[in-house]
Amino acid sequence: MSALYESVVDVFAERFGIDRALIVPEASFDDLGLDSLAQIELATSLQKRLGVVLTDEEIIELTVVSDIVAILEEKETRV
Amino acid sequence: MRGFTAVISGIGLVTPAGIGVRDNWARVLDAGETMATPADIPGLSNTIACPVPDHFEEDVGIPNAWQFDRYAQFALMATREALGDAGLEPGSWPEASRVAVVIGSGAGGTATLEAQHTVLAEEGPQAVSPLTLPMGLLNMAAGQVAIAIGATGPCLAPCTACASGATAIGIARDMLRLGTADIVIAGGAEAPITPLYLAAFTRMRALSRRTDHKTASRPFDVSRDGFVLGEGAGVFVMETEAHARARGASPIAGVVGYGASADAHHVTSPDPQGRGAKLAMRAALADAGLPGKEVAYVNAHGTSTRLNDSVEAAALNEVFGESIMVSSTKGVTGHLLGAAGAIETAYTALALRDGVVPPTANLTDPDPAFAIDLVTGKPRCHAPGFALSNSFGFGGQNASVLLAAPEASP
Predict the structure, then answer these.
(1) What span, in angstroms and rounded, lies between the C-alpha atoms of A79 and B331?
(2) At B78, which helix (H) or strand (E)?
(3) B301 annotated active-site
(4) B169 burial via Cβ count (<10 Å: 0-12, 13-18, 19+)
């Protein structure tokens, strides 16, 4: 598991209090009990932690945890 | 339309005196001390407040509690206890649209709004949380409770500042009387122990400046010098007598009268003659068709400020005479603003249930100007058939709730 992936899991667990065991690559936001407002909140948390900026359009396209990791990799985000 | 009783069949309390009715009532009857601690706000030295002890987000009992401001977390916790007390299972309503929610607040989600304003100022608009308003709005305790329990009847959040919780009970009773609902989840919730609220109340010189925080809230005492800010929620299950009887619920007390008024005098100072306070109390009595001499006990607004307690004591004397038993439970809990009316109506209902009047904490030297029977020291055993709870808010907004023991009727 990449360091980037670990950082994403950290954000989910710390910001939203979600059990780490549930944060698997194929888990959807819905599975994790996160609505569209929480997705925007997630982007804010990622920006604070990793300095990566996700636009609202990019956020709307995300459905599962691995999508987030993929877009962060695409943006060459460093942990 | 006289003579209507709204049955209180369940109570939930989250206050500085504890989480749950049992802990609350034991501590309020003991009246040992003000449940205050240093507030630890940068730049405000020696500021104290009464927090809810040991509150954790996990205790709210739902996974998305982080999406709730603290005041809404308190409201949901109190609602769950009240429903359990009433023997009701949330979500299994025979007719969900007949279940209403009326939960008032004065400050709403001020902690969230203050924190996000700091984010806006320091990091810019892009950093502001999209949950700012879903958490911060004053109607969200009511909204989140309706969502959590699946209540689809009318849902609202009255605000009359420090009378909000009492106003909610009055509105809930009106809904039951008018046939708008069969069950109303009613109360008040507040979490104002924040830098802005403490700074603002300090600038108004409304807070006690006493250094011993255990004795700082001392309603009706000659040495009282201001209130101590508290937080929490009080929630009731209220229903019509017919509805309670049909499902075999046992009433804790009945709301038999409600009176509201405005001082129309000043934004914060009470009318010097207590005009608004007297109007509210007399309106509650008239609503029930009950003479004042039938009322044995009043749970006073009793904030421990110089002005409130003077004006309220004189008004109580005028309405009820000098033998009326009076206490203020704010000596223990501090002042919970928009939740105060709800938690104090709860203590008043418990006083009727148990036939015991809670004393006022820290009232060691009653102000000699007051000609009322101030209950202090030990709880006073009595079997009062009727009791009143007063709440007076900034803006001169007043509400009095008149309760009857289950066996008493006006």
Answers:
(1) 52
(2) helix B70-85
(3) yes
(4) buried
Closest in B67, B127, B134 to A44, CB measured: B127
Asked if B125 is an interface residue toward chain A (Cβ–Cβ < 8 A), one would say no
Catalytic-labelled residue, pool B162, B213, B243, B265? B162
Q: How far lies B30's CA from each of B33, B325, B377, in Å?
A: 9, 17, 9
User: Any catalytic annotation for residue B162?
Assistant: yes
What whole-number distance in Å separates Cα of residue B201 and Cα of residue B229? 9
For testing contact with chain A, the best of B56, B57, B58, B66 (most A CBs within 10 A): B66
Q: pLDDT truncated to tens, each residue of chain B (410 aa)? A: 458 999 999 999 999 999 999 999 999 999 999 999 999 888 888 899 999 998 888 889 888 888 999 999 999 999 999 999 999 998 889 999 999 999 999 999 999 999 999 999 999 998 999 999 999 999 999 999 999 999 999 999 999 999 999 999 999 999 999 999 999 999 999 999 999 999 999 999 999 999 899 999 999 999 999 999 999 999 999 999 999 999 999 999 999 999 999 999 999 999 999 999 999 999 999 999 999 999 999 999 999 999 999 999 999 999 999 999 999 999 999 999 999 999 999 999 999 999 999 999 999 999 999 999 999 999 999 876 999 999 999 999 999 999 999 988 66
Catalytic residue among B266, B301, B381, B382: B301
Are A40 and B130 inside 8 Å of each other by CB?
yes
| Helix H or strand E encompassing B283 | helix B275-288
Separation of alpha carbons B351 and B182, rounded Å: 26
Nearest-Cα residue of chain A relative to residue B126: A44
